[in-house]
Design the sequence.
């Protein structure tokens, strides 16, 4: 029986998304689960959201976090959206997720609280709407790692097992993840509105999005052009940050691109070990559409689909609206390149700009790819000055490159200490390496969560060079079988 002493609502919910036209969602309560057990709470995020940790630790809190309890101020819904999945457009929606509401923090910030794996919805398309423990813990680990790497991301508040099996290729433990996001509005949400809604529906969604994420629009002559500009900028900056740390999303469908500029959907994602621009981890990406080196181009492609949805709002003259959309999309590459160059300069300790910077940057990346060296550890070695540990150390072309790099650093006004500090702030010493994540998940599957806790601790301060994280810096051992990730559905 659920505890009775908890009377006040744990979450301070509003339900503004549910005030949009009805085509955008379906009211849907989560499926009751038989024996929920809390296995992971994110106390850092609890504090950020101004929540009561004791309430969430309680039996009531556990039942709340799996959807067995619905608070009075919650209006659970499943959201409708569409998307280009590997280039093919289709109707989608929350097939296994329920939005409980938008929690308002003591600071007045608004965050979606969503249950992932909470049962069938009208958009499940034949699926069971459930999730397994391993993929939900994996999303927890990777999303928290991304947050600590200072990359915009959805976050994970909790993971709880459901006490029932989930049937995939094997029988797995069922689980539900509580996901926190600035919102779950996607490029695919706009595609859905443009395809199946009216112009008024599209305008309602755009106006809602502007008020939710880009409220400076009131000063703009055309708020919808402003919305397009801001989303392009947010996504260019986000994908740039992915590239700088070697993160590969794996499934950059338009339904997995948020309007807020947060990383969402941690299914087939992974971090690159050996540098290779063609790296793919997703088991279903057979042609490398979403390979590491393709991510900027796919981002631009997805944003072009977003711009297409806004054409009815950009200008009353369709031809003029198309010109506006094309002009804004053409800016993506320049924004991305500027941000990427700035980020790479910081990784190499450059405070200012010089003509030879791109040559130096591309020279290093070319050598890294040619000699199949570790991406993260190469920059760590340059940062710490331990170049003798680098796999490139004895290569003649590296020695030539290194001389160019040192001379470039010497032409700066900043001291060696200042240069090192910039590089430490720009080059993580530890990332969630795939073999360490799998190690943690395998242990958790048999009830040992200590491996995951140690990994999360190592990932909590990725730019702290004073910590002993050598175990988590080790690349995987060579194997004939490439690492593969799955959507976890």
Sequence:
């Amino acid at each position: 029986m659920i505890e009775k002493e908890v009377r006040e609502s744990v979450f301070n919910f509003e339900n503004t998304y549910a005030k949009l036209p009805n085509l955008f969602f379906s009211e849907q309560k989560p499926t009751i689960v038989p024996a929920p057990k809390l296995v992971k709470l994110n106390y850092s995020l609890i504090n950020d959201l101004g929540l009561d940790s004791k309430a969430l630790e309680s039996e009531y809190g556990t039942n709340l976090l799996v959807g067995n309890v619905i608070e009075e101020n919650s209006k659970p819904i499943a959201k409708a959206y569409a998307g280009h999945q590997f280039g093919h457009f289709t109707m989608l929606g929350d097939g296994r997720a329920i939005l409980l509401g938008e929690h308002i923090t003591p600071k007045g910030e608004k965050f979606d609280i969503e249950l992932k794996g909470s049962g069938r919805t009208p958009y499940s398309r034949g699926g069971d709407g459930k999730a397994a423990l391993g993929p939900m813990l994996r999303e927890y680990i990777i999303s928290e790692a991304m947050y600590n790497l200072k990359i915009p991301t959805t976050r994970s508040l909790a993971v709880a097992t459901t006490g029932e099996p989930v049937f995939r290729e094997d029988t797995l433990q069922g689980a539900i993840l509580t996901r926190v996001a600035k919102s779950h509005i996607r490029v695919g949400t706009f595609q859905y509105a443009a395809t199946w809604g009216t112009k008024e529906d599209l305008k309602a969604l755009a106006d809602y999005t502007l008020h939710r994420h880009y409220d400076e629009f009131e000063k703009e002559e055309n708020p919808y052009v402003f919305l397009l500009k801001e989303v392009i900028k947010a996504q260019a900056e986000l994908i740039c940050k992915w590239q700088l740390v070697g993160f590969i999303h794996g499934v950059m469908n338009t339904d997995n691109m948020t309007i807020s500029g947060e990383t969402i959907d941690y299914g087939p994602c992974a971090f690159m070990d050996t540098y290779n621009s063609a790296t793919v981890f997703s088991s279903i990406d057979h042609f490398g559409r979403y390979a590491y080196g393709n991510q900027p181009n796919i981002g631009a492609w997805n944003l072009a689909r977003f711009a297409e949805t806004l054409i009815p709002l950009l200008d009353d003259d369709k031809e003029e609206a198309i010109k506006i959309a094309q002009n804004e999309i053409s800016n993506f590459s320049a924004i991305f390149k500027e941000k990427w160059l700035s980020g790479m300069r910081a990784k190499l300790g450059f405070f200012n700009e010089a003509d030879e910077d791109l040559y130096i940057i591309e020279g290093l990346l070319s050598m890294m790819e040619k000699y199949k060296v570790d991406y993260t550890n190469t920059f760590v070695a340059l940062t710490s000055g331990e170049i003798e540990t680098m796999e490139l150390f004895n290569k003649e072309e590296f020695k030539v490159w290194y001389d160019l790099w040192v001379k470039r650093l010497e032409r700066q006004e900043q001291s060696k200490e200042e240069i090192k500090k910039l590089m430490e702030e720009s080059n993580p010493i530890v990332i969630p390496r795939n073999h360490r994540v799998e190690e943690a998940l395998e242990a958790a599957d048999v009830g040992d969560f200590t491996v995951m806790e140690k990994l999360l601790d190592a990932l909590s301060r990725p730019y702290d060079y004073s910590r002993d994280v050598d175990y988590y810096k080790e690349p995987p051992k060579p194997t004939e079988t490439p690492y593969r990730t799955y959507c976890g559905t």
Summary: The longest strand covers residues 155-167.
